[in-house]
Specification:
single chain; about 500 residues; mainly beta; Immunoglobulin-like; 3 domains; about 10% helix
């Protein structure tokens, strides 16, 4: 029996008072205490949240991120606060053999174990209103040896001693074995130019590192253990040309394990490729990477002795030496061309065919804009549609390629700058018309931005972050026609 003397009509029992079956109130005089008290049956309110869980969507080993969730007890009338902690609990039958260096009373409680609940130390995450049922854990939260998430209920009297606990499962999901075949079997997917890349990049998918605690509710349904890595999180992969996390350029993204890099992709300053896995929360901070090799196959020692002795006519045998590495070369394509600059169309036509209609004009340009939340495929589809409309081109007359650069803002949001390079190949007779249209958009890029926003919206892409940067003035590069490489001119 625990006795408390008071002259008041109420008495406060401290938290963690051992449980009894009844409360008894005796009145007492200066002589003696009465022998028959008034009794109250004690109702011990034992409450704890249910289904506490953290599904780690930060895919880097040693970092956590995602949503901590729980269900509230049925009766919440006595709750004033929910306190969430990261904590270190001892292994079963073990001691608290952990370092508490750097911990202080403002960030941790070194005596978090009370009674039968064993706890080594803890660090607060948040104090929440009693009606809350989830807490967002920021991406890149260092695990730092923590083993559990703890959630304590607090009443007007005190914080409970025995919380709900969830074993932390640090999820790591990185691709591996990155390979780059610059010239696959289909020549159209390869690039034999120096400083330019093109081909198939492939990798092995991650296997989930999740260790399931039998005390936690199963994350994956029975019989579905084969669903690992990327599929477990509904994530995808992002491929970058890569030197470092701050020096990279996005090539594209895919939910598969192979991505075709478009031919004529500029290698730039990059020495490698990186594959980031991305969950529904964020892309990982530490990617899988591999060096990139640039296959180049250029002919050498070109020779053309002109054996046609008439002015304005040429004829003879055009010859060259094969590339040092011709393992990917299937055939040669030979063109005869001259720059259109300061040349009349008739003069250029004399080099190719009697008819000027056979000559082609090539106009090149680029545009750039900032846009978040879109894939490379969506950006290219929208930009291509806008260019076809703006420049009055048919689909076969337009070649486009997309690249991007990503930077991380202070609030950890990723901002993406997209660059779309385009090349229009049209008959020379239409060259001036297409060039004039392109020049008008370079002078009034906001007009093109209207077209682009509409085409992005058609693809379901939000344009709230769209900021159009530039539409370069086009360059009319050359006039050309194709000839058989064995033909003598």
């Amino acid at each position: 029996m625990l006795a408390v003397k008071t002259t008041q009509t109420s008495s406060l029992l401290p938290a963690d008072t051992p449980a009894y079956s009844h409360l008894l109130v005796y009145t007492a005089s200066s002589l003696t205490e009465q022998t028959t008290p008034v009794a109250l049956v004690i109702s011990d309110a034992a409450q704890v949240v249910g289904n506490l869980s953290l599904f780690d969507l930060d895919l880097d080993l040693g970092d956590l991120g995602g949503e901590i969730s729980w269900t509230l007890p049925q009766d919440t009338t006595s709750l004033t606060e929910l306190n969430v902690y990261l904590a270190v609990l001892p292994v079963e039958g073990g001691d608290c053999n952990v370092s508490t260096e750097g911990a202080d009373e403002n960030t941790s409680s070194l005596t978090c174990g009370v009674g039968s609940f064993l706890c080594c130390w803890r660090q607060p995450l948040a104090s929440l209103a009693p009606e809350e049922t989830n807490l967002s854990l920021a991406v890149d939260t260092a695990i730092e040896g923590f083993t559990h998430v703890l959630l304590y209920l607090r009443s007007p009297l005190a914080e409970q001693s025995t919380p709900a606990a969830f074993l932390i499962e640090d999820e790591s999901a990185s691709a591996s074995a990155i390979s780059f075949q610059e010239v696959p079997e289909s020549r159209q997917d390869g690039d034999l130019d120096a400083t330019e890349l093109g081909g198939a990049v492939s990798w092995q998918p991650p296997s989930s590192s999740r260790v399931q605690d039998p005390a936690n509710e199963a994350i994956r349904s029975e019989g579905n253990d084969a669903v690992d890595g990327v599929e477990l999180h509904g994530q995808d992969y992002i491929l970058y040309l890569y030197n470092s996390p701050t020096t990279r350029s996005q090539v594209g993204s895919t939910s598969g394990t192979t991505l075709i890099m478009a031919q004529d992709t500029a290698r730039g300053v990059f020495d490698g490729l990186a594959v980031y896995t991305r969950s529904t929360l964020a892309e990982q901070s530490t990617p899988a990477s591999a060096p990139v090799s640039d296959t180049a196959a250029a002919v050498a020692n070109l020779s053309f002795p002109d054996l046609d002795l008439d002015a304005t006519h040429i004829g003879g045998t055009f010859s060259w030496e094969e590339p040092a590495d011709d393992s990917y070369v299937t055939h040669y394509e030979v063109y005869i061309a001259r720059s259109l600059a300061e040349e009349s169309l008739a003069a250029v036509a004399l080099l190719c065919e009697p008819s000027v209609e056979e000559l082609q004009a090539i106009l090149s340009g680029s545009l750039s804009f900032i846009l978040d939340g879109a894939t490379a495929a969506q950006v290219e589809a929208a930009a291509r549609s806008s260019l076809l409309t703006a420049l009055d081109l048919s689909d076969e007359e337009l070649v486009t390629s997309v690249s991007s650069a990503v930077r991380r803002l202070r609030e950890r949001r990723l901002a993406t700058t997209w660059t779309v390079a385009f090349q229009a190949v049209v008959p020379v007779a239409r060259g001036d018309l297409v060039s004039g249209l392109a020049k008008s958009y370079s002078q009034r890029p906001q007009d093109f931005a209207v077209l682009l926003a509409a085409d992005l919206a058609q693809l379901g892409v939000s344009t709230s972050s769209l900021s159009f940067q530039s539409f370069s003035e086009p360059l009319m590069q050359e006039g050309w026609c194709e000839v058989d490489f064995e033909h003598q001119f």
